[in-house]
Write a structure and sequence with these properties.
Layout (H helix, E strand, L loop, with lengths): L1 H24 L3 H23 L5 H36 L1 H21 L5 H31 L1 H20 L4 H9 L4 H39 L5 H11 L8 H13 L3 H29 L4 H15 L3 H24 L4
Helix pairs in contact: 2-3, 2-6, 3-5, 3-6, 3-9, 4-5, 8-9, 8-11, 8-13, 9-10, 10-11, 12-13
């Protein structure tokens, strides 16, 4: 009885500490996952520098971190800076928003008038809605800029946490602390190794297979939009790349509406070009994604779709990787729990 009470108290202490730590690290959870993802990506390079080049662990870790900044953060910064500029320009330009909505409204009004359906009230509603959306767009831009400035301090702290964690992940890979963390995992060594390998597989597959598809689809649409001088080309290309991580919906959510808008604006050449590019990248998706996934590691399409939807809503862009990982871990841990604790196998 005394042992049971102590066990209950111990579990209560663990639970309370877990909640406190989770609450304290919640604002920086994305950066913690970011460090783990960068660790998986650059781990082969680190081992090459330590094993083949014979660099000291500390120096190799710092060198890999510097390389990761030039390879990942700096290009990402310039890309996001360009996209934010396009968002501001696109949202502040009320005329473009109103023109796009009114073009569709006039098209529908003409169609309804041919059917002898009164369109006066309908057209007025369209114009009112256009003005309302334009005002909301300007307000959103102001809030977005102010929010970005206010979050700079948290982002700076988060990046420091991410790179400090990445440094100690490299230098302490074989340390006593990492072995203690492995022991704390409530599964046997085989299943613990499976969890670690699943993490590497999900990160590799998502970043290589889905990342390659996203780069191709987003890049092609961006080039087509630039050729036909469509405002926000980098923004729409970036959105198409992000949406391409959804294996069912994907980039058609960008190029189909873009084709319709150009058709409403009577720019038929641009509409046909965007439609052709959209159909082309959709065909590429059906061939390129399975080929790369087969070489890197299979992820079930439903797992990827649901995982990305859940992950983005919780973690933002990093949810593209974290979402499928969480779902995969959920399935794996249930299977492991069943094998180890319900079937009687150790």
């Amino acid at each position: 009885m005394k042992k049971a009470v102590k066990m209950a108290l111990a579990l209560l202490i663990i639970a309370v500490l877990t909640v406190l730590i989770a609450y304290a690290t919640l604002p920086y959870l994305n950066y913690i996952f970011g460090a783990l993802i960068l660790f998986v990506i650059f781990r082969p390079l680190y081992h090459f520098l330590v094993g083949r080049i014979r660099l000291r662990k500390q120096f190799a870790s710092v060198l890999v971190i510097i390389i990761s900044i030039f390879v990942v953060l700096i290009p990402l910064y310039f890309l996001l800076n360009t996209i934010i500029g396009e968002i501001e320009q696109l949202l502040v330009d009320k005329t473009l928003i109103i023109a796009s909505i009114e073009a569709g409204g006039h098209f529908l009004a003409d169609f309804l008038s041919r059917l002898n359906i009164p369109v006066g009230v309908f057209q007025t509603k369209i114009e009112e809605k256009a003005m309302e959306l334009a005002s909301q767009a300007v307000n959103y831009t102001s809030v977005f800029i102010v929010g970005s400035i206010q979050s700079l301090s948290q982002q700076s702290i988060g990046l420091l946490i991410m790179y400090f964690m990445l440094y100690y992940l490299f230098t302490g890979e074989d340390s006593d602390f990492m072995r203690q963390v492995s022991v704390a995992v409530p599964f046997n060594e085989e299943n613990t190794a499976t969890l670690l390998e699943e993490f590497r597989k999900i990160v590799r597959t998502t970043l290589i297979a889905s990342g390659a598809v996203a780069l191709v689809q987003g890049g092609i649409l961006t080039i087509v939009f630039l050729i036909f001088n469509i405002q926000g080309a980098f923004l729409w290309g970036f959105i198409a790349g992000i949406l391409s991580f959804l294996p069912v919906v994907g980039s058609p959510l960008v190029w189909v509406p873009a084709t319709i808008v150009q058709f409403f604006q009577e720019d038929y050449t641009a509409a046909i070009a965007i439609l052709a590019a959209g159909l082309f990248i959709s065909v590429i998706d059906n061939f390129l994604r399975p080929i790369i996934q087969k070489r890197v590691g299979e992820i079930h399409p439903f797992l990827s779709l649901l995982g990305v939807v859940i992950g983005i809503s919780l973690f933002g862009l990093l949810g593209i990787v974290i979402g499928p990982l969480l779902l995969s871990y959920f399935v794996l841990t249930v299977q492991m729990f069943s094998r180890e604790y319900l079937s009687g196998k150790e």
